[in-house]
Amino acid sequence: MPHNLAGRKQSGGDQSDGSGSAAKTHRPKSGKTSEENDKKILNKKLKDVEISVPIVYGTIAFWLGKKATEYHSHKWTVYVRSATNEDLGAVIKRVVFQLHASFNNPTRIVDSPPFELSESGWGEFEIAISIFFHADVSDKQLDLLHHLRLYPEDDSSAPQSTKKPVVIESYDEIVFCEPSEAFFSRVQNHPAVSVPRLPASFNFPPSGLLIENVHERKRGDTKDHPLSQWFLNFSEADELLKLAAARQQVQAHIGKLRRQLTLTDGQPQHSKPSPGQ
């Protein structure tokens, strides 16, 4: 389900000195005033525009095999990544993972991509994930929940393997309504972000005013990540194939039920004898 996050709204207006006089006092411009003007430019909104950021969040858990102990039977990694494994640093500022209270320092803060952390343990639990965005993106955080699973869901009695992990991932889309011009300018050509086309006459703010310049950030994509071979594919083509396969299964099930119903209707009906016969 897409999450709609509206950008920060700011109201502006002329400030009066309270004297009631029509005359205005001219004051020298200060550095603070210049910063306020830059901030207004950065937070200028694009009406009727939406930016979509597809993300994936989940866990990958490995059984430790002979190295397993009573309290450390699995090693696992929890993460938030781009659905296309691109760098999300242009959108996300930090991610906070809230682990079980039994862990040392259960509140883990990751300030740079890739947004992930690894731990070891023996139990399954809910991990709270809070995503925080850059100032020109949104001042609202996004809170998610993910269940850490260590054992295969299909057959828990089957022997575990140290080579094949348990992978649980969820796909979602973050939708930013009326984004700031600075945010739009920074991600208009970003492969992990879906943005609409604007008129050619549109003038973006000077690059010097951008809060975060994506070209100056260290790449944090997960294409060459050590766990990338286990990442699930959430492309539109794969989703269409899954829907087509599910539709075929439903149609086959309907056909089977119809055949059973036809056989039932074709069987002779035996009347029950009345009392006394």
From TrEMBL:
GO cellular component terms?
A: nucleus
Question: PROSITE patterns from the xrefs?
Answer: YEATS
Q: Residues annotated as region Disordered?
A: 1-38
- InterPro entries this protein is in? YEAST_sf, YEATS, YEATS_dom
Q: What species is this protein from?
A: Papaver somniferum (Opium poppy)
Q: Which residues form the YEATS domain?
A: 45-190
Which keywords belong to this entry? Nucleus, Transcription, Transcription regulation
Q: Which domain of life is it from?
A: Eukaryota
Q: Where in the cell is it found?
A: Nucleus
Locate the coiled-coil region(s) and give their ranges. none
Name by which UniProt lists this protein = YEATS domain-containing protein
Name the Gene3D superfamilies on file: YEATS domain
> Which residues fall in a compositionally biased region of kind Low complexity?
12-21
- GO terms of biological process kind: regulation of DNA-templated transcription
